[in-house]
Specification:
It is a single chain. It is globular, with a radius of gyration of 20 Å. A two-stranded antiparallel ribbon has the order 1-2. Helix 3 runs antiparallel to helix 4, helix 7 packs antiparallel against helix 8 and helix 13 runs antiparallel to helix 14. The protein has one domain: Farnesyl Diphosphate Synthase, CATH 1.10.600. It contains 16 helices and two strands. With about 325 residues, it is mainly α.
């Protein structure tokens, strides 16, 4: 990641720290400050700022609205953690573990309210459009989360169904982040559509990379134990393709591991990863990641801006495509 992108992330982090969320009662507002303080890549607000800078200089008009997508993203994580009963988020206790579920639900609700406060800081001539497009995005994210939960009780999830789920749950917010920056930057409808498509396609590739890293990342770089999806039998792209392509003993062994309720975690991770290796799942997944990133870049190249304004967004895209954590 180049120095300008790191500098912009620093600006975003500082703005988040200074955000007026609220103070009293502390049990309502402290959990919000806590989850926002846990860090993260800040990719979504960074996308908004970079999209704005395709059309305008600086970041004054986009900075506060860009924080809305980061607050919304963390709101979804807070509620997802409750639904998943997750004990940790970024190697720290989740809000519902540190406080309790009721506190986490209510704090999440306030976070969503604050999202609208931030979006309302967009220029009055476009604020209705900003919020209308956000509402469509937010509903889609909820649809994706519901599909993800539905998949837990469905034996056969297809590749197409899975891609649609991650498009809704993860990718559309990246699409909106770029769309927001373009909208506030004064982009026309055609360029806004290309920005949204670019972000959504990149978001699918981004989630597929997450799936891949959960199995194949270097543990020291990844920052957490690899193989969590394998242990949970999570229907990721890797498991779906392996189930589809495995034959003979590999198929029987994979089915046996998926159905087991009593196992040694490290043994299951090693065994399922070995099956993936024999089938060539890593290469197949990387091919899909490249497909969506390249398709996204095709949309990006259709945006009508000068070449010198493209470099930072292209740099970020390359970083996301090659990340190791």
């Amino acid at each position: 990641m180049n120095e300008k992108l790191k500098e912009l992330i620093g600006v975003i982090d500082q703005a988040l720290k200074q955000l007026k969320i609220g103070d009293d009662p502390s049990n309502l507002y402290d959990p919000i400050k806590y989850i926002l303080s846990l860090g993260g890549k800040r990719i979504r607000p960074l996308l908004s700022v970079l999209a704005y800078q395709l059309f305008q200089e600086g970041y004054d008009k986009i900075l506060m609205p860009s924080l809305a997508v980061e607050v919304f993203h963390n709101f979804t994580l807070l509620h997802d953690d409750i639904m998943d009963k997750a004990p940790l988020r970024r190697n720290q206790p989740t809000v519902h573990e540190k406080w309790n579920e009721n506190v986490a639900i209510l704090s999440g609700d306030v976070m969503l309210v604050r999202v609208y406060d931030l979006l309302l800081q967009a220029d009055g001539s476009i604020v209705k459009e900003v919020i209308s497009r956000f509402n469509n995005c937010a509903a889609a994210v909820c649809e994706g989360q519901q599909l993800d939960m539905d998949f837990e009780s469905i034996d056969n999830v297809t590749q197409e169904e899975y891609i649609n789920m991650i498009r809704l749950k993860t990718a559309v917010l990246l699409g909106y982040s770029l769309e927001l920056g373009g909208l506030i930057g004064g982009a026309g409808e055609e360029d806004l559509a290309h920005l949204k498509n670019f972000g959504t396609l990149m978001g699918i590739g981004f989630q597929l990379m997450d799936d891949l890293l959960d199995v194949y990342a270097d543990k020291d770089v990844f920052g957490k134990q690899v193989g969590g999806d394998i242990l949970a039998n999570k229907k990721t792209f890797l498991l779906i393709k392996a189930t589809e392509l495995a034959g003979g003993n590999d198929k029987k062994e994979l089915e046996a591991w998926v159905s087991k309720t009593d196992f040694i975690p490290e043994e299951k991770i090693r065994a399922v990863t070995a099956i993936y290796d024999r089938i060539g799942i890593e290469a197949i997944t990387r091919e899909q990641i490249n497909f969506y990133f390249e398709k996204g870049l095709g949309e990006f190249n259709k945006i009508r801006v000068k070449e010198d304004r493209r470099k930072d967004l292209l740099s970020l895209s390359g970083f996301l495509m090659k990340r190791e954590k």
